Amino acid sequence: MTFRSGFACLVGRPNAGKSTLTNALVGQKVAITSGRPQTTRHTIRGIVHRPDAQLVLVDTPGLHRPRTLLGERLNALVKDTLTEVDVVGFCLPSDQKVGPGDRFIAEQLSELGRDGRGTPVVAIATKADLVGKARLAEHLLAVSALGEWADIIPVSAESGYQVAELEKVLIGHLDEGPALYPEGELTDEPENVMVAELVREAALEGVRDELPHSLAVVVDEIVPRPQADGAQGPAMLDVRVHLFVERDSQKAIIIGRAGSRLREVGTEARRGIEALLGTRVFLDLHVKVAKDWQRDPKQLGRMGF
After folding, report:
1. Where is the stretch described as G2 (predicted)?
2. What residues form the annotated binding site?
């Protein structure tokens, strides 16, 4: 039996459904999702295991015209990733018309094809469950007119519509080769990055549009709590995390009245962190103001960008 392996990169404008699609393909949550645009800050690798193939998914920040130094660095991260993969999945949400952001990305992907590498690009009409057949057909025609794609396929990560078919299409563009990761491994992201993403996802739920761009989360430490002599079972982990925002008004949003909002964030994030780490967690959250950190090279460096 022929075995294929390689990397697929999902790109698209912010909030195009890339993270949700990554999770659907992997079959488990490896990338944070949010109704707010620009929630992905790191490339998250999700690993799809099949008897005949291993597909490593790279979920990137949304490509966009940058307005800040952070935006420029995120775009550079995406473009660097595009040069290292075997196939690109270009996500275009079916419930929104093709717009300037999609055309901007299509131009970037056309340049990729002109540079001699010839990386195949699969156009993916995401969120197909949110529209009727007529609207979906109209969207697919608009996507087709954007460029020359190796394949065009509508999917719905929420309902599962054609997710398995997309998996087959992406794997079809991989070369023959051995498995790149051990069986059962679903992501190669460090634990502290995954923990930070879970906290940021919880903090972004139900807040104003301004906050996603201004929120950064840094895990200070994950350490076992000392146990009493003779104690049985795994030690509780102390997880200390800082949430950075740019203004005092944003700090007030995160904390909420008498700390109520921050407690909700902690409760929600702790569930995901305990599932990730497989043990009980004491989550210690602190909110700090780092003025205009998105435009400050030193602060960006300290936050890992």
Report:
1. 38-42
2. 12-19, 59-63, 126-129
